[in-house]
Specification:
185 residues, two-stranded antiparallel sheet
Length: 185
């Protein structure tokens, strides 16, 4: 009788390992947030995670309020995303981060899906929270106002919209769809 137990890895059964990562968020400090996000993506990669999901607007912080109207913050958020893409090129997992993004002079609350330095898709939020302490309609446009289906960012042409699905090539039939907060309700 053997004490050895055989186990086939989760990938052999078609499972997809997902992690939810919650960084320490530094409000209106995209550079510091990028460093937090990069570290957590690295941890997920070492942990054999295939998809790591971050909170809504994690690159800037959700509570920036009227700072979302400042070009300085919006440009810093894009630079932080570019830094994240660059520093995680070796990590072979899909990551999803939240950020504000200007598309043809309209500001959207988006989820950016990427892997190994390549943006796979950008998903804008449709249903904006706008009651009590939430005032998203003050700063953001709904995905229903999105003027394009593709966006050129960092030299990449990327699909943008609420109807974008990501096919996971090595797991037949596995597709990833993204919804942000109220959109899932």
């Amino acid at each position: 009788m053997s004490n050895t137990v055989e186990f086939r890895g989760f990938k052999d059964y078609g499972f997809f390992r997902v992690a939810n990562a919650v960084p320490v968020v530094h409000v209106a400090n995209p550079n510091k947030n990028a460093d937090e996000i990069i570290e957590l993506i690295g941890d997920a990669w070492v942990g054999d995670v295939q998809l790591v999901v971050f909170p809504e607007l994690c690159i800037t912080g959700y509570t920036c309020e009227d700072l979302f109207q400042r070009e300085t913050l919006l440009e810093a958020a894009k630079e932080a995303l570019n830094h994240i893409l660059d520093k995680t090129r070796q990590c072979d997992l899909i990551s999803i981060v939240g950020m504000p993004l200007v598309v043809e002079n309209k500001l959207f609350n988006v989820a950016v899906v990427f892997k190994k330095g390549t943006i796979l898709a950008i998903i804008p939020k449709t249903h904006l929270a706008n009651s009590v302490e939430f005032h998203e309609e003050r700063w953001f446009k709904s995905a229903t106002e999105l003027p394009v289906k593709e966006l050129c960012i960092f030299g990449q042409t990327v699909p943008i919209g609420t109807d974008v699905m990501i096919n996971v090539i090595n797991i037949p039939g596995c597709r990833i769809g993204v919804e942000i907060c109220e959109d899932g309700w």
